[in-house]
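Renewal narrative, Specific Aim 1. Our central claim is that a sequence can be written position by position from structural information alone. The example that follows is taken directly from our test logs and has not been curated for this report. It begins with the structure tokens describing the chain, in the order in which they were read.
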């Protein structure tokens, strides 16, 4: 489908008014007589997501009302007004100039995101209602954010049959070419020669055309340094600790961390942020064959730490470990990893929140502020030092899957921090999937945390 965009400015655009229950009487009083009578006759009550097209005196379309709901409903939902894009009749609409600027921005972004359809395999009808970019809203920025989110969603939604390590590499290469970034790829046995043994171990059981690899993209010539590391497990069988079928069904999304950092990278490059960006993606398929790594194996890592494998289904932290160690060698100003890493995170916070870890209170505050502004909710989790002993098995330096099943997201984050040290570091344990349709977020792949980080970049890296 075409990239979601705003309509061109149009003086004849249809009025679109966002209404709360407490403001309903005033909103109705401002309508033309025919439209007001219709709204009253229809019993419009401005409930969250309610949409009412309004007639003019000739029976044509005058405009529309969109309900925002009461305070409780607004606290429970995001992009409520943006969701109207799929409910309104065809036409070009313009928000009332008096719309609150923050609400106008969220509505405009929500409108673009609501227009997304994954139509690679079957035609999907896109909304025919278009929105003029509201006055005072940075349309270029919202377009860049929406385009980055589209990239993330498309990558996650594509099944592993068409999104293996080679295809993920091709997607990164296309992005690099578009923005003039440089890219290098280390593949197969070369991983061992380049001292990336954990990436090789996890991916070596896959077919030859799905060989493991490390994708390394760089962009920018000046400014602070930012390294993004994304888990690119293009399909996860669980390895020899084979997942049951019910758990394997969504594993096309196990490269959601890679998809999210590529989407964020696209936003950063499209907006021309003054920084030096590096993106590292260990891309593998965790398969089963005679060459698969085994429970009980002790593996070497790039950093020199030995790792006992107690579960081959805890492979994401293994491939990230080598990539984080490589990233830390250049001492970037900030390194961030994003990964669909643990089921424990989903048990803790569900599918809608992106839990994140950082030792820096100022960074946590900046990310939380960015999340609130971007309608991209996050939740800080602790690097709880007393749990360090849980990832130290004695027979090796580290354990990839401590027994007991407690604090699974925290112990995974602590494992990753060992390889990121001493770099300033944040880790996001995302889900990357929206299980139920919601305004601006259809069922399927979804970015989590990227918009929050983009909003936080000025505070995180001192950008102007």
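The sequence written for that structure reads:
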């Amino acid at each position: 489908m075409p990239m979601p965009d705003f309509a061109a400015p149009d003086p004849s655009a249809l009025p679109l008014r966002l209404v709360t229950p407490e403001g309903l009487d005033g909103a109705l009083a401002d309508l033309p007589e025919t439209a007001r009578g219709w709204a009253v006759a229809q019993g419009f009550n401005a409930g969250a997501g309610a949409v009412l097209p309004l007639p003019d005196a000739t029976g044509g379309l005058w405009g529309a009302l969109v309900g925002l709901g009461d305070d409780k409903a607004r606290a429970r939902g995001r992009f409520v007004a943006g969701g109207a894009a799929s409910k309104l009749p065809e036409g070009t609409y313009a928000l009332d100039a008096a719309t609150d600027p923050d609400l106008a921005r969220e509505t405009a972004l929500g409108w673009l995101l609501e227009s997304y359809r994954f139509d690679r395999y079957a035609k999907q009808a896109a909304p025919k209602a278009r929105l003029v970019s509201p006055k005072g809203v940075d349309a270029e920025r919202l377009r860049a954010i929406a385009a980055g989110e589209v990239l993330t969603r498309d990558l996650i939604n594509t099944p592993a049959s068409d999104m293996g390590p080679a295809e993920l590499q091709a997607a990164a290469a296309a992005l690099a070419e578009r923005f003039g970034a440089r890219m290098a790829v280390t593949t197969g046995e070369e991983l061992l020669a380049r001292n990336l043994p954990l990436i090789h171990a996890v991916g070596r059981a896959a077919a030859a055309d799905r060989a493991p690899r490390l994708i390394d993209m760089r962009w920018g010539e000046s400014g602070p340094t930012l390294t993004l590391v994304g888990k690119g497990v293009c399909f996860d069988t669980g390895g020899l600790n084979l997942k049951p079928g019910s758990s394997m069904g969504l594993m096309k999304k196990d490269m959601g961390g890679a998809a999210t950092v590529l989407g964020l990278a696209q936003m950063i490059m499209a907006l021309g942020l003054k920084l030096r960006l590096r993106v590292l993606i260990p891309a593998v398929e965790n398969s089963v064959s005679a060459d698969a790594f085994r429970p009980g194996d002790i593996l070497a890592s790039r950093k020199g730490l030995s790792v006992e494998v107690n579960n081959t289904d805890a492979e994401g932290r293994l491939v990230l470990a080598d990539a984080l160690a490589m990233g830390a060698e250049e001492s970037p100003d900030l390194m961030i990893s994003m990964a669909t890493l643990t089921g424990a995170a989903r048990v803790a916070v569900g599918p809608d929140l992106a839990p994140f870890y950082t030792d820096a209170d100022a960074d946590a505050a900046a990310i939380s502020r960015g999340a609130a502004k971007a309608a991209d909710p996050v939740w800080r989790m602790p690097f709880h030092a007393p749990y360090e002993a849980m990832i130290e098995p004695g027979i090796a330096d580290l354990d990839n899957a401590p027994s007991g099943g407690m604090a699974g997201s925290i112990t995974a984050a602590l494992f990753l921090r060992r390889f990121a040290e001493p770099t300033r570091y944040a880790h996001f344990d995302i889900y990357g999937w929206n299980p139920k349709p919601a305004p601006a977020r259809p069922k399927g792949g979804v970015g989590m945390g990227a918009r929050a980080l983009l909003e936080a970049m000025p505070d995180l890296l001192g950008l102007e």
